[in-house]
């Protein structure tokens, strides 16, 4: 656990604790729902070419192994 000058929690630790608390309070459906919302927002802000490019990058990275 890293503390800053004021002996307060680091951003990393705060994020980890927040994520753990969220996971205790929500189920699988919650994460599916927010993932769907994020996917829809992403689809609205990017075109087909963007998704083709990132898909190719993912395939290339996977095929290197």
Automatic annotation (TrEMBL):
**UniProt region (Disordered), positions on chain:** 1-65
Q: Ranges of Basic and acidic residues compositional bias?
A: 1-36, 50-65
Specify the domain of life of the species encoding this protein: Bacteria
Q: Which InterPro entries match?
A: Stress-induced_KGG_rpt, Stress/Virulence-Domain
This protein is called General stress protein GsiB
Q: One Pfam family name from the record?
A: KGG
């Amino acid at each position: 656990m890293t503390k800053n000058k004021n002996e307060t929690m680091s951003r990393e630790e705060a994020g980890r604790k927040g994520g753990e608390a969220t996971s205790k309070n929500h189920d699988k459906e919650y994460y599916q729902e927010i993932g769907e919302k994020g996917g829809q927002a992403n689809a609205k802000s990017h075109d087909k070419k963007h998704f083709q490019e990132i898909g190719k990058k993912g395939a290339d990275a996977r095929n290197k192994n």
